[in-house]
């Protein structure tokens, strides 16, 4: 379950631990992000409830837990755990646009301004930290130190990612078309998020705070998408959101050409033609010492 690209040193981050591409891209059009980004398959939540945090599978136990959804975005993961009856659930998100979208969707859920290195919660106050589709933006010792601070003893960090499965030929071509615009940002596919758990100097610090090695699992699934949904999925990527109108138009031509390929099977779903977009969902977790 490694990233599928070459390794390189990620660019520096802005004050507050927010990468500039993330800060700009994810604040550009939250409506597209919310509409286009897929949710997570039911099997992921079942894994969490049965193996990673069994207390979440028991309403009585869940009611005693304090849970943080860190870098919650528009609440893609939050909505899956809201029905579990968690005693105290709070989301933290640095993007004002994302927080606004979250609040419109979930007016009764708590979301507050904060970042991976400035979590506005007391010491030892959280049982579980979920980080969905985000840890690659702040995979560093400073962020892990802050998570360690707010976690209770034996508290758990759970990281989750959806990634388009390039083993399918048209997906590989599609990813090549848009990934060339990444501009050096530390995307999950590159595997840079593993550095704190693999590089000796970082491991030396992280192993004082958390049980290593981390545990991992991968779940494969597919999402039914129309042509427009595939394009909106591309637009939802932070580094695509900040492109010029002209650059987006050129990319749209490439995407349309790929989707016209003969290796794609289209089905009829209502009034739409849809394809099955293959994904892998990766889950990694570890506990505080």
Automatic annotation (TrEMBL):
The keyword Methyltransferase applies. The keyword Oxidoreductase does not apply. It comes from the Eukaryota. GO terms for molecular function: S-adenosylmethionine-dependent methyltransferase activity. Transmembrane segments: none annotated. Keywords: Methyltransferase, Transferase. Residues 68-158 form the Methyltransferase type domain. Residues 1-20 are annotated as: Disordered. CDD domains: AdoMet_MTases. This is Methyltransferase type 11 domain-containing protein. It comes from Ceratodon purpureus (Fire moss).
């Amino acid at each position: 379950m490694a990233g599928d690209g070459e390794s390189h040193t990620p660019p520096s981050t802005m004050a507050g631990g927010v990468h500039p591409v993330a800060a700009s891209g994810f604040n550009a059009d939250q409506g597209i992000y919310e509409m286009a980004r897929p949710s997570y398959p039911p099997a992921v939540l079942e894994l969490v409830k049965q193996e990673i945090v069994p207390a979440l599978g028991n309403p009585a136990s869940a009611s005693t837990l304090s849970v943080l959804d860190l870098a919650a975005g528009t609440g893609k993961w939050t909505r899956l755990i809201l029905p579990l009856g968690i005693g105290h659930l709070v989301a933290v998100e640095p993007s004002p646009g994302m927080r606004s979208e979250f609040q419109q969707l979930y007016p009764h859920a708590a979301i507050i301004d904060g970042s991976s290195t400035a979590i506005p919660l007391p010491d030892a106050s959280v049982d579980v930290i979920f980080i969905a589709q985000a840890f690659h933006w702040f995979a560093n010792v400073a962020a892990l130190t802050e998570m360690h601070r707010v976690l209770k003893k034996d508290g758990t960090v759970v990281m989750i990612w959806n990634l388009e499965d390039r083993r399918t030929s048209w997906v590989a071509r599609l990813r090549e078309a848009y990934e060339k615009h990444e501009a050096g940002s530390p995307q999950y596919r590159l595997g840079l998020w593993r550095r704190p758990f693999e590089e000796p100097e970082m491991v030396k610090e992280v192993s004082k705070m958390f049980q290593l090695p981390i545990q991992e699992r991968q779940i494969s699934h597919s999402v039914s998408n129309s042509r427009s949904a595939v394009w909106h999925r591309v637009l939802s990527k932070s580094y695509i959101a900040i492109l010029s109108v002209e650059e987006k138009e050129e990319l749209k031509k490439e995407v349309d050409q790929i989707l016209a390929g003969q290796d794609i099977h289209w089905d009829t779903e209502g009034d739409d033609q849809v394809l099955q977009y293959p994904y892998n969902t990766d889950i990694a977790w570890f506990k505080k010492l």
